[in-house]
Amino acid sequence: MKKQGILLIISIIVLSLIKNEPTYAFEKEVPFFPISFRIEMPSWEEVNKIIPKQSKFQIIDVETGKSFNVQRRAGSNHADVQPLTKKDTEIMKKVYNDQWSWRRRAVLVLVNDHLIAASMNGMPHGGGVLQNGFSGHFCIHFWGSTTHRSKNPDLSHQLMVLKAAGKIEEYFKKATPYELLNVFMVAINNTDDELLKMIFFQ
Asked: Can you list the domains of the chain with their CATH numbers?
């Protein structure tokens, strides 16, 4: 099936799934990032050296512009991190509309002179030692990183890394019909309306 045919099928399904949101007279606030250097998308092997275990850095959510501080505690295939303080935990929870979730989100990691494209989930799990009101840790993925159980990168995390790096549209343009179908399934599984819209309007 040609790419155009795949897109037509996807677009029909997307239109039936995207939630109708009310329109308002005011414009959506544009997130402000107090940084001026270039976004990087290094491999996980490189990032693993930039943010070694015990290092502290800042997470910036791409959609909301909210930021909070974390510390890397563990992880070999990706970074297992914890919010530094209870205040950081509160900010992170607001990013997820006050409900912890496995949903992947595009984020930027600000550490020293690096601004790195990444992806996070928002579900406390596993162990945690900081007194921060967060029962466990959460995962941050980078380009080429994998989960603990797989040798292959997690597609949903990789898509969010591309989004954070500003390269998601370029990916869509080069994607095969099979890859577009995989992206579509990721968007459905993550209930990601924004990603669905990006597939439809790309």
From this structure: 39-153 (2.30.110), 167-202 (no CATH)
